[in-house]
Amino acid sequence: MGKIVYATRRERFNAAHKLWHDEWDHAKNVEMFGKCSNPNWHGHNYELFVTIKGEPSEETGYCMDLKHLRDIVEKYVTSKLDHKNLNLDVDFMKGVKTSTENLAIKIWEQLEPHINQTGCKLHCIRITETENQAVEYFGGE
Amino acid sequence: MGKIVYATRRERFNAAHKLWHDEWDHAKNVEMFGKCSNPNWHGHNYELFVTIKGEPSEETGYCMDLKHLRDIVEKYVTSKLDHKNLNLDVDFMKGVKTSTENLAIKIWEQLEPHINQTGCKLHCIRITETENQAVEYFGGE
Amino acid sequence: MGKIVYATRRERFNAAHKLWHDEWDHAKNVEMFGKCSNPNWHGHNYELFVTIKGEPSEETGYCMDLKHLRDIVEKYVTSKLDHKNLNLDVDFMKGVKTSTENLAIKIWEQLEPHINQTGCKLHCIRITETENQAVEYFGGE
Amino acid sequence: MGKIVYATRRERFNAAHKLWHDEWDHAKNVEMFGKCSNPNWHGHNYELFVTIKGEPSEETGYCMDLKHLRDIVEKYVTSKLDHKNLNLDVDFMKGVKTSTENLAIKIWEQLEPHINQTGCKLHCIRITETENQAVEYFGGE
Amino acid sequence: MGKIVYATRRERFNAAHKLWHDEWDHAKNVEMFGKCSNPNWHGHNYELFVTIKGEPSEETGYCMDLKHLRDIVEKYVTSKLDHKNLNLDVDFMKGVKTSTENLAIKIWEQLEPHINQTGCKLHCIRITETENQAVEYFGGE
Amino acid sequence: MGKIVYATRRERFNAAHKLWHDEWDHAKNVEMFGKCSNPNWHGHNYELFVTIKGEPSEETGYCMDLKHLRDIVEKYVTSKLDHKNLNLDVDFMKGVKTSTENLAIKIWEQLEPHINQTGCKLHCIRITETENQAVEYFGGE
């Protein structure tokens, strides 16, 4: 039987966003989202940790070459998020609130098909929004 | 079926404590607890990570407003610990050794009833005591 | 003669901005500012380190109560920057590019008169924009 | 029923290594391992996090005295890795590629018998190789 | 002419303290020192950065063997501070408030004669008390 | 008169090295360099902080485009150091001990002519070798 190892790659992106519900007036948005509802946006240095799991290859010692993982994350996720506006510029965030929770779910959906083709499995998407706040998503269960 | 996301809030508190067993003499306390038994106390900058789990609301994108989580943690835990003596000043630590392990268990017991009223569930209490030592408690199982 | 000590308080703010010159067309802005010129903004978790210098009081051991410094920084700087758009929302940034360099100069100008009333002197404004980039300003010399 | 707590001790070691397959020529090694195949080695500041689980003792409040855990890790692992060449100097790495994945598996195998004698159980070996890459091993499942 | 290099060694100590003026009543102490006046103490994980300057030796490439600096700091400073009460247990802190400012001045006074015997000069004592507060002392000027 | 701002770019490199004097025997090398004399090398994740100073341009708000600084550092320094052996692979380290002190001096000498052509001046080379040890070089004075 195999020996499953979990490997994590960190990537970073700097983006603007706001939390805002169009059907609510300004006062209700402020009540619900506080400072995060500033109409002119605010932003963050997000850190994204992508964890995959698999068995190390005897030949390379790798579950998966993390440079390959980096390229997948860059192509499908961080190139679309870095120095962007999460509400306006990102195709895969259309129609959902740009909370860190939703960002994690949507990044999972972007990455899972590509990672699962490699022989490894996507295990966790972790995003830190500030040093005090982070979310993790393991596919929903 | 829903999509469960884990969200973590970090809080900090600076406190004094010692590890000491009244029924042991000084030599036995030193043998068992080393430097941590200094009679005049020592102290730490503790970091507390509270992780809850739940489904993001469609309206807000949040599992739970982390400002609300912060207020619960402040009210029931960090206001009682910050700039205090864990052995002398903290009602919920009476009768147990002030190890980081016990601190995690007791903080869980303080927070669980209040967090579980919000629709989310408490998942993990993590405390770092120094950069080299940390504990996690998931409710005991 | 006295013993001068330097004391530093860290504050944080999360803001949106872009680097953009109205008199340049889009291509020239991209050439000069790269990803930082994204029209829909991007953002950062900025860290601000304010360093003052002075002699510790015999009575308190403090150069200056850092809670008082925190209040000055909050009132004149971070309340105006946190969860804001540096280009649109900040009175003291009007008319200058929102580079980290200019942000440091303008924060110095905001704080110096208030800090120098306390008996201490402002020594340094340090801002980290990302983990890879930081600036320091010591009043210009 | 008991209350299981997880406790983690961090240790550090600085080591040289390369990723290299003797049966491959230089070009194939570069293709597979990139910069990590430099014949004259390169190196890292590795961080090792050893997590054990157990019930806190009523007497001490500890799952396990982490100074004892530190001594076990020092004796069986870090004294053999620190300021060493992972390919040439380390008995327990003979015959496997010195990837971080394999390092985690082999450290687990070194530590598990000694930790499981203490009444606690080894839960996780986590190694960070750089700020962007980390692996975790939980015994293989 | 020589090439002066600055070298820094970090050490850590965990200690209890309070800020308290015996000649003031409880209310005045709280007014002046806030939470730091808790009668039963609080504590911190202090980080101490000792910076020396000198010319690297041609033979070793070192200004000073930092293991030797570590031993000096351990002997004269951290062994007296770690897991101690700064108000009660530390000979060189008698008679002054245990502010971080005073701690930096007193550590300088402890170390300077011993470091200046090595051919290098003490340049800076930096202490971080929390992630938000730090002081530096350069000998007073 | 102008307003001088200091700007810092961080780069990283992972390298192998040893401290070793060919004219000394093994015992003397161990006595002088301790674990750093391991014949089969060891290694580090070095962090390099390059600080330049200059006046922000009115047009861009930059002292110097830090992407340009990054390119200079990459071309003349980190491409020669990353995933290399400091003793064997690096042209500009020939003939000197590979201490962090000498590394800082030699990196200064590599960068100064190229940075001083940009209108800014090189101010400081800072290198961290481990979380406990760092050096700074300001050009020698």
Describe what you observe in this structure.
The structure is a homohexamer of 141-residue chains. A five-stranded mixed sheet of chain A has the order 3-1-2-4-5. The mean pLDDT of chain A is 96. Chain A has three helices and five strands, in the order E-H-E-H-E-H-E-E. Chain A is of the alpha+beta class and 141 residues long. Chain A has one domain (5-137): 6-pyruvoyl tetrahydropterin synthase/QueD (Tetrahydropterin Synthase, Chain A, 2-Layer Sandwich). The longest helix of chain A has 17 residues, at 100-116. Chain A has helices at residues 26-33, 66-81, 100-116; strands spanning 5-17, 42-54, 84-85, 121-130, 133-137. Chain A binds chain B through residues 19, 21, 32-34, 96-102, 104-105, 131-138, 140-141, and chain B through 1-11, 51, 56, 59-63, 66-67.
